[in-house]
Specification:
Length: 364
C-alpha cells in the first residue's frame, strides 16, 4: 500500500482547503465504513485523474466511475471515494452526489450534455476589455450558469487596457440582470479585492480563449501557478494556454476551477437558466394576450410592445429568441414527445392567429 495512505489521518485539514465540510463528511459515512478515503477530483485524463486527499495529492485510476454519458462521467470538482491498493495506483470507486454542475451541449450527432465542472457555487463569466464586450456571449454563459444552480458573476478582465472600465461594467450589467459585474486588472490589481469577495465556495471561470482567465487565477492566488500566453491585439486571439480543467485552492475553503477557452457553448436543458438570464422578458410575457405567445408577430404581445416603446432593446429579444430556439432544438433531438409538442405549439399558434384575424374582420 502506498505510503500516503499508511499514515494516520492528517491533522492539517488539507481537504478542508478544498471545501470539505461536515455535510460531506456525513454523506461519506458508508464509504468510510467500507475502508475508502474521501477525495476531490482536481484534474481528469483518460482513465486517470488527479485527486487530493487529506494526505495529499495522488494519481488515481478512474475507470470505475467513467460513463459513456458525458453528463455522468467523472469531472473536475467531483467528490469521490478512493480505494487504496498495494503496489498499484488507488481506484476512484464512487462519486458523491453532485450539488450542482455546469453542463453544455456536446457537438455530437446525439443530444448529450457535457459536464464542465461540478459542485460549483460561483460561476464567473469572463470577458476581456481589449475589445467590445460581446453581450450575446455573456447572456449565453449566464444562462448556462443560472441553470447549474451556481451564482453567476461577470468579470471584465484587462480593465487597465480600457479607457472607461466603469462605463463598460455599467453597460454590461444591462445584459446581466441579477448578476454582479466587476472590472478587474490582473496587471494593476484593480478590482481584485471586489472579485475575491464575490467568489464563494467553488468558483469556475468560463470564457473565450484570450480572456485572461489563467492570468486572473495567478493574480488571485498571488503566484504564477498556471501558464499564460500572449494575445494578439488585432483580433484578441492567442494560443490556448489552459489545455484541461484544473482545480486550485484559493484559501478559506474556497477553490478555483480554470477551464480551457470555450469556442462554442451550446445550451443543454437550460429553460430555467434562460428564465433567470432574461427575467424582464418573462415578466412582460405574463401580459401577452396569448399564453403561448412566441413574441414574434402575435397581436397583443406585451414583449413586442415593450420593444416598440423602447423599454426592451431589440438586441436583447433577438438574443433570447436565438437561445430559446437552440435550447428547444437540442432537447427535441433526443425527445420525440418534445418534438411533437413543439410542432403542436406552432400549429396552435398559427390557428390562434387566423382565428383572431377572422373575428376582427367580422367586427369591422
Amino acid at each position: 500500500m502506498s505510503s500516503e495512505f499508511t499514515s494516520a489521518p492528517s491533522d492539517s485539514g488539507l481537504l478542508a482547503a478544498y471545501g470539505w465540510n461536515a455535510s460531506l463528511d456525513a454523506a461519506f459515512a458508508d464509504h468510510r465504513a467500507a475502508g475508502l478515503l474521501p477525495c476531490r477530483v482536481t484534474g481528469v485524463d483518460r482513465g486517470r485523474c488527479d485527486v487530493v486527499t487529506d494526505h495529499g495529492p495522488v494519481r488515481a485510476v478512474s475507470t470505475p466511475v467513467l460513463s459513456p454519458d458525458p453528463a455522468r462521467t467523472v469531472c473536475v470538482g467531483d467528490w469521490g471515494a478512493l480505494r487504496p491498493r498495494t503496489g498499484e495506483p488507488p481506484l476512484l470507486t464512487a462519486l458523491l452526489p453532485r450539488r450542482s454542475a455546469i453542463v453544455r451541449s456536446t457537438a455530437s450527432a446525439r443530444s448529450e450534455g457535457q459536464v464542465l465542472a461540478t459542485n460549483v457555487d460561483t460561476a464567473a463569466v469572463v470577458e476581456p476589455l481589449t475589445g467590445p464586450v460581446a453581450p450575446a456571449r455573456v447572456e449565453r454563459l449566464l444562462a448556462l450558469a443560472w441553470e447549474s444552480g451556481a451564482t453567476p458573476v461577470v468579470v471584465l478582465t484587462k480593465a487597465d487596457r480600457h479607457p472607461a472600465p466603469g462605463r463598460a461594467a455599467a453597460e454590461t450589467a444591462a445584459a446581466a440582470p441579477g448578476a454582479d459585474v466587476v472590472a478587474v486588472s490582473a496587471a494593476t490589481g484593480d478590482g481584485l479585492d471586489a472579485l475575491t469577495a464575490l467568489l464563494r465556495g467553488t468558483a469556475v471561470l468560463l470564457g473565450p480563449s484570450g480572456a485572461g482567465k489563467s492570468t486572473l487565477v495567478n493574480a488571485l492566488l498571488g503566484a504564477d501557478v498556471l501558464a499564460t500566453g500572449e494575445v494578439r491585439d488585432r483580433d484578441g486571439k492567442g494560443r490556448h494556454t489552459t489545455v484541461r480543467r484544473e482545480l486550485l485552492p484559493l484559501g478559506d475553503g474556497r477553490v478555483l476551477i480554470d477551464t480551457p477557452g470555450l469556442r462554442g457553448v451550446g445550451l443543454w436543458d437550460a429553460a430555467e437558466g434562460l428564465h433567470r438570464a432574461f427575467p424582464e422578458i418573462g415578466e412582460l410575457a405574463e401580459e401577452c394576450r396569448f399564453h403561448d405567445c412566441s413574441h414574434t408577430s402575435e397581436p397583443g404581445c406585451a414583449v413586442l410592445a415593450a420593444v416598440d416603446g423602447g423599454i426592451l432593446p431589440q438586441r436583447r429579444l433577438d438574443s433570447y429568441r436565438t437561445l430559446l430556439r437552440e435550447n428547444e432544438w437540442t432537447a427535441a433531438r433526443s425527445d420525440a414527445r418534445l418534438r411533437a409538442e413543439i410542432r403542436r405549439r406552432h400549429r396552435e399558434g398559427s390557428r390562434s392567429l387566423r382565428q383572431f384575424y377572422r373575428l376582427r374582420g367580422r367586427k369591422e
